[in-house]
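**User:**
Make up any protein.

**Assistant:**
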Amino acid sequence: MSICIVTDSCADLPEEIVNSTKNLTVAPLIAVFGDKTYRDGVDIKPPDFYKLQAQSKELPSTGMVTPGYFTDLFAGLLKEYDAVIALLFSSKLSGTYNSALAAKDGFPGKDITVVDSRGGTLGEGLMALRAARMAGQGASKVEILKELDRMVSGMQYMLVLGTLDYLHKGGRLSASQKIIGNILNIKPILNLVDGEIKVIDRARGKKKAFQWIVDYIKGLDIDLKGQTIGINHTNCVEDADELERLIRENFKVGELIRSQVGAVVGTHAGPDALGIYFVK
C-alpha cells in the first residue's frame, strides 16, 4: 500500500528535507500583513517574514488551511496513493485539523486518516517526518499510526521566548507585565501540554534558560542517541548554535534537525525565540 503523509506549514520542517522526503506533502497556512496575504513557506520564506515583522507596527494575522484546499489536495494525492494520513497542527490552536476532517467527508470510501498532533512547530514536523520515512520504507498504515500515537503522547516541547512584546501584542500579556519582564530579562519557558501552550517556568536570561533545559532533560533520564531531535529558532542563529552545543555537550544525540520557524508560528513567538523537541 502506498501512503502519503500530509502535514501543514506549522510543522516548520526545513525546505530541503521536505523536498527530499518522498511520501510527504505540506499544506500552507496563511500569514496576512495589512492587505497582503502570503502562503506560509510558499509565498513568504522565514528570512523575508522576519524582515516584514520587524518593520510592521501591528501584529500580522494568520489563517488556517481551508477545507477547500484540503479537498483539492486529497483529490490529487488519492490519484497517486492508496491512502493519506494527515498529521496537523493542534486542534486547540488552529482550525486546520477541523478543515481536514470536513474535507475528508467529501471522500466516502477513500482511505484518509486525520490525526491531531496536539502540538506544532518542529515537534509536529518530527512526527510527520518519521511517518513519511516509515511510509517510504513500506510500513503499514497501522504501524505508522501506532508510531504517531506514541510520538504525539511523548513529544516534549521546550520553548524559550526572546521577548515578551509579541505575547503582549497578541493580547496574552498586560503592558505592565511586558515592561517589567523585559527590563528584568525574564525568559518564559513554554511547553505544549495536550495541545495547549503552558508556561512551565521562567529564567532570567537565555543562558539560564538553556541550562534549565539541560537540567530538565537530565531529570527525565532518557536516551536521545536513538532518536531524531529538533532545534529551531526565530531569526537567532547564534543562540540556536549555543543551544545545540550545550545539547551535544551533555547528551549523546542521534540525528539533529535544525530549522528556522515559519511565518505562522513566528507571528506569535516573535523574534529571538528558540525551541527544542524530542520524545520522552
In short: The longest strand covers residues 196-204. The two ends are 30 Å apart (CA to CA). Residues 176-181 have pLDDT under 50 and may be disordered. The chain is about 40% helix and 25% strand.
